[in-house]
Amino acid sequence: xxxxxxxxxxxxxxxxxxxxxxxxxxxxxxxxxxxxxxxxxxxxxxxxxxxxxxxxxxxxxxxxxxxxxxxxxxxxxxxxxxxxxxxxxxxxxxxxxxxxxxxxxxxxxxxxxxxxxxxxxxxxxxxxxxxxxxxxxxxxxxxxxxxxxxxxxxxxxxxxxxxxxxxxxxxxxxxxxxxxxxxxxxxxxxxxxxxxxxxxxxxxxxxxxxxxxxxxxxxxxxxxxxxxxxxxxxxxxxxxxxxxxxxxxxxxxxxxxxxxxxxxxxxxxxxxxxxxxxxxxxxxxxxxxxxxxxxxxxxxxxxxxxxxxxxxxxxxxxxxxxxxxxxxxxxxxxxxxxxxxxxxxxxxxxxxxxxxxxxxxxxxxxxxxxxxxxxxxxxxxxxxxxxxxxxxxxxxxxxxxxxxxxxxxxxxxxxxxxxxxxxx
Length: 424
Prior knowledge:
Pfam families: AAA_21, DUF3696. The protein is α+β, with helices and mostly antiparallel strands. It has 10 helices and 19 strands. The chain is 29% helix and 27% strand.
């Protein structure tokens, strides 16, 4: 789980300051304000950590099959107007749920542009407990390795960091008995980044039937691809978790009042299956129901499929859902973050989701320590972040005016017009 994030000169952000991330973090704000940049910073590191080329410093994307985003060039990531040094940085802190030699740590990496135009690491710092390890670029391809802020223990052109999160073998050797700790730290970092599940706002339409090849997919893709594979594997594999995902999703669809349940129907004796949606005694193929159910399915499946301790990042999960269903999404995030130890970082424009989150706090079904609600706005060329101050009754004391419209003002105006007509 990521516990904090800070961006400097990254896209719309000059400096976010240290942002506290909670088990459920809700990002709100106007269009093109910088919300997505917060999410993209972690996804940029995820696709770098998964790069097949270990010598890569930062994978800005371009491979439509394996990359989450195409960030373009160094100048497309660097905040406009940044002067010397032309450098951006990403920092975060994390805690791990899995058994590991490293239970918590911090990551900090700054990037510059080399004379060749490539994006290179200027300084990588990894720390856990009282130990801090750095790789600092001196000139061209030469890097110096530091341990616990002492004098450099090595300097050479074979010490460049790998995939933004790891020290090379030569650096591990130079660090002596602390080399193993650095390896464990890098491995934990990689696991945290790889366990990010990301769903974007554009998701696939459903098929009429699906083929199951008796395997479990490694992850759900950003457009929701592999969602049904996860459902089929969970329902058709006869293990201790048989049907857990399908039953859980049926429960939330019923709470949202969009369906009573989901079932899986085999077509003859083939390996083809239909996803059936049951509502008011009628069963229909997933392809034949409204678009809301197919679009929310990846969100619900991700919550159950993500490994405990991992992070699910969602952009506009409420797309094509009616107001009640949007409200229930807040309950879904709070419930699964607690029961499955899954972190949710949610970018949304839904007033109904936000209002239900306030109600859950007032009901004491969650607390302000478990929820972070952040508002992002644009002032001139800078993105500005405001942490919404929420009390134990869910009330916000520093809410930006008119972001969700002026419901009270609308009601007042309707009453005024009704009274004026009656007087006439």
